[in-house]
Amino acid sequence: MILNKNFLDNKSFDKKDYNYTQDELSPGIVHIGVGNFHRSHQAYLLDALFNKRKDLDFGIVGAGLREYDTFMRNDLLKQDCLTTLVQRDESSTNTRILQSMIDFIEVDNRLLVESLVKEDIKIVSLTITEGGYYIDSYGNFNINDEEIQADIKNPDTPNTAFGILIKALKIRKENGLKPFTLLTCDNIAHNGDVLRNVMIKMSEQIDKDLSEYIKNNVSCPNSMVDRITPTATQEDKDFIENEYGYVDNRPVFSEPFIQWIIEDKFCNGRPALEEVGVMFVEDIMPYELMKIRMLNGSHAAISSVSALLNIEYVHEALEHENVKSFLDKIINKEVIPVLKDIVDVNLDEYYNTVLTRFANPYIKDTITRICFDNSNKQPKFIIDSIKDGIKNNVNVDGLILACALWCRYSTGNDENGKELDINDGRKDKLKELALKAKNNPIVFIQMEDIYGNLSQNEYFANTFENFLNSIWENGVLNTVKNYNKS
Ligand code: CS2
Q1: Separation of 200 CA from ligand 1 center, angstroms?
Q2: Of 221, 250, 281, at which residue does a domain stop?
Q3: Buried b (16+ CB within 10 A) or exposed e, 48-83
Q4: Is the domain of 254 the same as that of 389?
Q5: Tell me: the pLDDT tens digits for 334-350?
Q6: Which protein residue has the closest C-alpha to ligand 1 atom 10?
Q7: Ligand 1 center to residue 246 CA distance, Å?
Q8: Is 0.90 topped by the overall pTM?
Q9: What is the span of the domain harbouring residue 40?
């Protein structure tokens, strides 16, 4: 039996814990990019709020633009848009059926625009990945990108998320409706400002008045989102079937930890998420820097070395003495010193929490997941820390070693010749350059779209070269050990 609306007939679930039904919700949020993270995070928190019988007019409608979204939509519609969320650590397994999503728009750009112009939609939230914002390595919007240009030339038949949002805002304006808030939930520093900039720059090329209107009326709050959410495995699906007797084709397994901090700028109302622990602040910058550089930065720092050492899970990476020391040294000596004057939080404590979360073996977070799309993650999670470290005269050798390890990883094979499962849109280019870099290291860091002009920095270029040479001559483990000892 597939999960469905009558799930409360299942004896495993207690009616007392479910204080609302999907039928009581009405659509208020369209979410673009319904993956695991959206469901473990935003959908979970809204479910908690609805369960307090608050703001039932903020039901989530799922949406997407890619083929992946069609599969997700088909699966979710078969189970009435419900999601089983299992939160796990060593002391607890907490299962809840989330009902906060009530529909999923067909993956068709025209239909998406139609949904976005409905008066009830007050917020459009997005998880479209770090690479989805067309920003270059200098942090600028790449307006010359082909897809963006195509939407600028044909604004009535847009294909990018931003073209679609601009068209919808235009129609709302013409129809005298309030605009929606654009709430990005991607791990990018100043994510709201980045999105706002894309919307303004792109609409300027389409319709100047509309662009002014967007600038003055649409809010794009910055936010910091956090919950580690690996992809569920077949074993996880089996767990649900064996434990509860139904099939969820899209269950979500996450850690118990959750955090969402948002700037309180909503142009068309918002749900009272503070009632379920969301923090609303005036300035998000310190929190996002802390999270992106320390948590995502830690993932990015250990990703390639762990893959090269044949480590399967994040918790196992932390059990590996040399990987753990490598990470400790990077965070304590290279990342925290740059952040400590900016962030008014105890960063040592924060790092300890990160380590405890990474050590959770019950969520089985894979090294493959944290290696995914590294070419979009390295710039935001590692290279920004390098640039700031250099500016502040902080030694960033370990972060540069992480770059050299990523270069070695990008060759596609480990030291035993085993093929690495590289999942990156730029995989072929990376491989070509990584192989060339064996004899000529600089070619890898000359990838301007990733490293900006860092290759012209003598310290960066020399250190990268020395580490890469050492990796090829002395091996991955010895190079890391030498850095740890230095
Ligand atoms: C991870 C994130 O993608 C990654 O490499 O660092 O997915 C991380 O697990 C989340 O941002 C946690 O909030």
Answers
A1: 28
A2: 281
A3: bbbbeebbbebbbbbbbbeeebeebbeebeebbbbb
A4: no
A5: 999 999 988 888 999 99
A6: 228
A7: 29
A8: yes
A9: 5-281
